[in-house]
């Protein structure tokens, strides 16, 4: 009896789900018109720049470089490797000693994962929200404009993301400055194991990470600016030129 009841409940839930999907699909009407308006066009730009922001940070991997110069021995290169999420204290490297003994593991200093992961998290959730709203704009525009609830929620969420972009971009900008300092070859050769035998080499390539901070602040500008165009869709915005009423137009002439 219990199995039969469970099967009936599962079948009922499946029917309700399929009915909801059918209603949703039947209400979908593709309209590319919103892309010609600032509301949809800026959302597409946000979608693109959001991808650039978290992709340039999340996929990064780099290395620093310095050389160990021992007397009567060939110079030996040392390349400390680090990558996202920049927990540098977990990135070991070895400095070959000049006395021929076995080298011990040496670690980069610092943990900057919190700011980097926060920045990437804002980017990923921003990308998902842009995708969902673009589907709403292009396929369910009539639902979006049917009541004032849709534009109002959109305005609140967009303003929240603008604030998050400000905080995360500022935090990641500071974190990136610290990463550059911690991986600077001039700083690494001051290690006690190096003494006076190490010579600083090339600085790590940080072009992608610099670009990620720039994309973060560009997203701040886009999301904050888009608030105005969404605000115009809400009932809080009053039309400066309301349509004239019959009383304002006056009685028709003879």
From TrEMBL:
Q: What is its main location?
A: membrane
Write out the GO cellular component annotations. synaptic vesicle membrane
- Domain MARVEL, chain residue ranges per copy: 34-235
Q: Where in the cell is it found?
A: Membrane
Keywords, comma-separated and alphabetical: Glycoprotein, Membrane, Transmembrane, Transmembrane helix
Recorded hits in PROSITE patterns, A to Z, give:
MARVEL
Transmembrane spans = 116-140, 152-172, 211-231
Q: How does it sit in the membrane?
A: Multi-pass membrane protein
**UniProt keyword Metal-binding, yes or no:** no
Domain of life of the native organism: Eukaryota
Q: Which Pfam families match?
A: MARVEL
Q: Which family does it belong to?
A: Belongs to the synaptophysin/synaptobrevin family.
How is this protein named in the record? Answer: MARVEL domain-containing protein
What organism is recorded for this protein?
Pogonophryne albipinna
């Amino acid at each position: 009896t219990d199995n039969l009841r469970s099967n009936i409940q599962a079948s009922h839930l499946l029917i309700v789900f399929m009915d909801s999907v059918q209603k949703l699909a039947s209400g979908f009407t593709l309209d590319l018109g919103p892309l010609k308006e600032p509301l949809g066009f800026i959302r597409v730009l946000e979608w693109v720049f959001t991808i650039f922001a978290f992709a340039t940070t999340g996929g990064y991997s780099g290395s620093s470089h310095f050389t160990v110069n021992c007397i009567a021995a060939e110079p030996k290169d040392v390349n400390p490797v680090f990558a996202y999420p920049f927990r540098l204290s977990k990135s070991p490297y070895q400095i070959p000693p000049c006395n021929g003994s076995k080298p011990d593991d040496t670690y980069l200093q610092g943990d900057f994962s919190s700011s980097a992961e926060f920045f990437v998290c804002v980017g990923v959730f921003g990308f998902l929200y842009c995708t969902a709203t673009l589907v709403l704009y292009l396929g369910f525009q009539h639902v979006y404009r049917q009541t004032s609830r849709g534009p109002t929620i959109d305005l609140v969420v967009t303003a929240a993301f603008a604030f998050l972009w400000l905080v995360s971009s500022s935090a990641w900008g500071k974190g990136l400055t610290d990463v550059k300092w911690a991986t600077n070859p001039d700083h690494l050769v001051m290690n006690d194991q190096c003494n006076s035998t190490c010579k600083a080499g090339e600085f790590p390539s940080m072009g992608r990470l610099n670009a990620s901070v720039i994309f973060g602040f560009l997203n701040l500008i886009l999301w904050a600016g888009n608030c105005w165009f969404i605000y115009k869709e809400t009932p809080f915005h009053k039309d400066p030129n309301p349509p004239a009423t019959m009383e304002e137009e006056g009685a028709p002439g003879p």
